[in-house]
Amino acid sequence: MKINTGIFIFDDVEILDFTGPYEVFSATRLSSKVLSNKNVKEIYAADSPFNVFTITEKNRSVITKGGLKVFGDYVFFDSPSIDILLIPGGTGIQNLLKNREVISWLKKKQNIGLIFSVCTGSLLLAAAGLLKNKKASTHWSAKKLLKKISPSTTISNKRYINDTIWSSAGVASGIDLSLKIVEKYFGKRIAKNTAKYMEYKSNEK
Q1: How confident is the model at residue 204, as a pLDDT?
Q2: Which of 37, 39, 41, 134 sits at 20 to 30 Å (Cα–Cα) from 77?
Q3: How confident is the model at residue 59 (pLDDT cuts 50, 70, 90)?
């Protein structure tokens, strides 16, 4: 059974915050072999073990920061069950911090398999009370605001943090955290193969 991986998107979401992790999970393949020119077609003939999809609050397209229009796969009420939930960041997060429907939806998801944020997505998790007494990373420009929203949260300077809720610093660091999640579920070999396929050099903490 595939791992349902939901990505919440909204107006003015940072593009790489969600497309970077989307690429990681959709590019993952299960094989004990080291990825090479000799076996890449064989390995990538299979599907990803992750079922990746996007979720929006309302049934309409969202306009990302930068102007890309994206239509979500599902809305809150009709999405499949979620095993992994990504909350990306972007300037649009500010408009969601007091959005009761979004906050309520997040609270209902707090006990799923794994929740993680990229960049300022941590602010929304904090607004929902999910970062109380936890460690968290966020974009360098949002650290003071994160502390203001959730005073009990320990703000980390690391590229990503693996607490009960995982979080990464800004933008591109979400790729590193997503690869770490692949490693958590399937081991280092699969994570390294995924990074190699993407031609991405992972940045450790």
Answers
A1: 62
A2: 134
A3: confident
